[in-house]
Amino acid sequence: MPPRFQSLLLDIHARLLSAGTDHEEVLDGVVGLLARALGCPAAWIALADASGTLHIEAVGGTHPQLETLPGQALPHSKGLRGETLAYRCLRTGKTAQARDAVAELPITLPPGATAVLPLASGAAPHGVLGLRAAPGRSFRQGELAFLETVATHLAAVLALRARVAAADEALAHRHQAAAVFDSAMEGIFITDLNGRILAANPAACRITGYDAAEVLGATPALFKSGRHDQAFYEAFWASLRAYGCWRGEIWNRRKNGEIYPELLCVSAIHDDSGQAVRFVALLIDISEQKRIESELARKAYYDQLTGLPNRGLFEDYLAKVLARARREGSTVAVLFFDLDDFKYVNDTLGHDEGDRLIRTVAERLAACLRSEDMVARLGGDEFVVALPGIPHMHDAATVARKLLDSVCGPVALGTDEVYVSGCIGIALFPDDGDSPDLLLRCADNAMYGAKELGSNSMLFYRPEMHTRSGERFAIGSALKNALGANEFFLVYQPQFRAGAQRPVGVEALLRWRHNGEVITPDRFIPLSEEKGLIVEVGEWVLRTACTQGRLWHEQGFSDLRVAVNLSARQFRERTLVPMIYEVLEETGFPPAALEIEITESLTLSNANSAPNILGALKEMGVGIAIDDFGTGYSSLACLGRYPIDTLKIDLSFVQAIGRDPRVEAIICAIVAMAGTLGIALVAEGVETEAQRDFLLGRGCDVIQGYLVGKPMLPQEFDAHFASGLLPH
Predict the structure, then answer these.
(1) Integer Cα distance of 476 and 101 in angstroms
(2) For labelling, which of 377, 498, 513, 533 has a CA lying 20 to 30 Å from the CA of 728?
């Protein structure tokens, strides 16, 4: 409980327990305290009579007509809206609240948020506590929790005062006073001036765990927890002797040894001459309240899914670590870790499996760190690590590699096995930033740079990344409207067979013209993947390419094949095969003239679903090509497992022709293997006649590259090939 609420609760208890104070004055004082503390224009207490009608007993606040309310009955209903909050609260025994309650009192209050809480000391409420918030303000969760605590204590003390009043009316017979004492929900001790216990009610025994016989004659030292020093108890007794009271929180020990928190209010009892003759202690076990506060703190500072610290706690910790590093002149590293393709797991396997994956990653990260390090989850699939006292940047790189090696690998999710990968960006204090926010932003920028290097990469922050981060943001924002604004267009790079004057195929390549600039795919395709736009954009590419392909077929290029690349995100869509079928039907483009290009790594990361998807496309008649062949980890495995029609020799191999005999040998092996398996070959990136001659001489007779044709707009294609001549 926040200190201001705790202090206010103690003030309320002091009023409720004040001897000789008129009943109405006590209640007015309580609601007045609440109204002032919470800034409410009106607060009230209403008690139910035998017929169940609520009558206003006390009011507090600033509204000028409040003084007319005591004694009046609360309205039962508000017309067509049904019963008022007060009677709903009385009926259900639960807090009732509304943003705009206008008919809760017999006077007209400005519209505003209203909360009504039950006053219940037994099974059913016997009254309500109501508050009207200031215009434009609502009651926060913490305030409602505090008000419920106040209502609980208020109800108990009202019941106690009622029983005491009843006892007074019956001439304060001993057995009636004893009944009041025994039935109180709060613990009560009566002691002599030296603190020796003279009486203990059942609630006090229940709270402490001792029988009455065990505490009579003892002092409160019996309950010492060991958490308070001698100065605390000296101040306690000094307050009692000087002021006749002490209020506060104290930790005590039950008979079973359990230490628990207690709200304690001790007051002196005076005789007719004004001399203190006894002390009465009212004690309330606040263990459950503390547990709730601890749970709220845990929710406020810890991630609910993984149990790791959240961003707020991480930034607090990092601020302390940086302060210490400034004093010591040491280095701090901040690592930003992000999973690859986490959205795919959620979309295909479900959020439960996605949650299981996040928990597994969290456990693997935490297991790699020292006790002084901290790993936190920022949300989604993003984690951050703080490494204080790093001797050298190489040590940060070592930890980053250890984290990647630990996290990246297979994870069993239900009946599936998912291969986890991710990237880490690293920022250092004091070189890259001197605040938690700046270091996190730098590490985040470095992580995006690592993403561009490929899975399981790490990268240190560099100042130029800040400019790239701003560019990424600008491009990402513009991407959302690019498709609707018709800013995307396709170019087509021709593929030629040896000796032919007309192309046998084209590869459709996506371009983006924005604000007069043509933005290259390497700058916007990763962002399209990240922002979930690639599926919609990919369908547009396929539809546009098939439409253009049909036009070329009608113009006489009847054998022309059109190749379209699929992204990893598209390949994981369950609607991929139906979408391709629908596009072919709508455009009238023959399936046999369409070739879908995928990468080796794409088939590896989708090992369970790839055979079914590729098999369905094959049955449809669509060709399958492996792009960038030879650069993946499973070149031979994918040839044996999937229905491949074409291999595209990666341009990195082609460009090494004439410079690296080992690469030339690899090309020869690929050509021989393709011939044995009956798979067609296309060499990418052919730019020189020497490269062309080498490839043709080894049996690869279809080439693609600037030597035979650059990527062209459809009108350029038509202009070049209508005459049957090769472009130059």
Answers:
(1) 45
(2) 513
Residue 14 has pLDDT above 70, yes or no: yes
Task: Say how far apart CA 557 and CA 503 lie, in whole Å.
Answer: 9
Say if residue 439 is exposed, middle or buried (CB neighbours under 10 Å; 0-12, 13-18, 19+): buried
**What one-letter code names the amino acid at 132?**
R
Identify whether the C-beta of residue 359 lies closer than 8 Å to the C-beta of residue 365: no
Question: Which amino acid, one-letter code, is at 237?
Answer: W
Alpha-carbon distance of 454 to 421, in angstroms, equals 10
Would you say the pTM of this structure is higher than 0.85?
no
Q: What pLDDT shows up at residue 340?
A: 83
Closest C-alpha to 553, from 508, 583, 594 = 594
- Between β-strands 197-200 and 187-191, what pairing exists: parallel, antiparallel or unpaired? antiparallel
For the chain, percent helix, then strand, then coil, each to nearest 5?
Answer: 45, 25, 30
What Å distances lie between residue 710 and 547, 629, 687, 705, 715, CA to CA? 21, 21, 10, 7, 13
Q: Which residues pair with 191 in a beta bridge?
A: 197, 279
Which H or E run includes 138? none
Place of tokens 């994981």: 572
590-629 confidence digits (pLDDT tens) = 999 999 998 766 665 565 677 888 899 999 999 999 887 7
Nearest Cα to 623, choosing from 671, 559, 698, 547? 559
Residue with tokens 């004093």: 327
What letter would DSSP give residue 459? Answer: E
* Contacts of residue 88, Cβ cutoff 8 Å, sequence gap at least 6: 96, 116
Report CA torsion sign: 109, 110, 116, 119: negative
